[in-house]
Amino acid sequence: MSARVAVLGAGSWGTTFGKILADGGARVTMWARRPELAREIDEAKRNSRYLPGINLPRTMRATHDIARTLEGADQVYVSVPSKSARDTLKQIRPILSRTEAPVVSLMKGVEKKSGLRMSQVIEEVLGCDPRRIAVVSGPNLAREIAQEQPTAAVASSHSAETAALVATTSSNGYFRTFVNTDVAGTEFGGVLKNLIAVATGIVDGVGYGENTKASIITRGLVEMTDFAVAYGAQHETMQGLAGLGDLIATCQSPLSRNNTAGRLLGQGYTLDDVVEHMEQTAEGLSSVAPILQLAQAKGVEMPIVQQVKMVLDGTMEPRDIAPHLTTDDDTPQEETQYGSSDRGGALRRAIERARDLLGDGGGRARRD
Predict the structure, then answer these.
(1) Long-range contacts of the stretch 303-306 (C-beta < 8 A, 24+)
(2) Most-buried pick from 38, 55, 210, 323 (CB within 10 A)?
């Protein structure tokens, strides 16, 4: 029999993932916070607010009653803003405590006060075995997938069996889900790429070109990798769909909410104006501060993210973000695939000799 699946959250990504699951053969019930949206999905098979022009599968159902959504569910997918995750999970805890259904996070953020990843919030609030929890991430711009443009994602869980179950349920003719067991890396990839996308949006809004954006994306991947590895992630994950893949899609596409938010900031809008303008949450805006706190705790340098925070705080003009991509240290530094430190002893010695020869009048060489 096909899986009975509940999807909590009927924004663009939640609705799109519900479509992915339904097109893969699952029996899907969506939960929408607004009754009128639930009614439109259930009766008209449309979500005109978040996915205008997209026809949803006839097998998809929707309701405003969260208990009805979860009734008999074999799997539960959560796609609400990270700031709403804890309250939503508390609401469903009595129901889920009576089942062993896997709980899958589609969310890409960290909790502002605690700094916890969404899978950690799920584990803490529900008090369930972490092997029952999975996360899905990747280069997943909702509208393109809703239009059935071919793409892929990764499902991650501490349990390979749970990851495989989610991947099987969420694969179809236009969407392929791979698996791994690096939950921290998969989640941090989805969080951190939003911050870099805000930075690329800012320089785009200012009017800088492709060289500047390519520099930010490339060095942004280094910052992402340094941070994620410091918190137990695997290097390889950051080079895959959840890291590099998601980073490219989010930084390049005008469909990206975080890129759009950054572009508005670069055009001179204030943070309050941007938040008011955005119809959906740009998770990168709320993740900057907690990510920098976590980075500081591990001694990880994140100069691009720090510059984004300065723009958000109004202490740096958006046009000044590009000249300060790396560091104020004039010492040339090795470009490494991972990490910002100089790991090449021979190169380090050559740099020291060059500085001795050039003296204080030498030219400034920056990390490439």
Answers:
(1) 303/223, 303/327, 304/195, 304/196, 304/199, 304/216, 304/219, 304/220, 304/223, 305/192, 305/195, 305/196, 305/199, 305/223
(2) 38
Q: So which residues are the catalytic ones?
A: 193
| Look-up of token digits 């050559």 | 350
Among 131, 146, 181, the domain-final residue is 181
- Looking at 180-194, 247-261, 312-326, which range is the least confident one? 312-326
Mind listing the pLDDT tens digit for each residue in 85-103?
999 999 999 999 889 999 9
Instruction: Give the C-alpha separation, 208 to 40, whole Å.
Output: 42
What is the crossing angle of helices 210-230 and 303-313, to 10°?
A: 110
296 and 258 co-located in one domain: yes
CATH of the domain at 103: 3.40.50.720
Q: For residue 303, give its domain range.
A: 185-324
Instruction: Show the tokens assigned to 267.
Output: 């055009």
pLDDT value for 161: 97
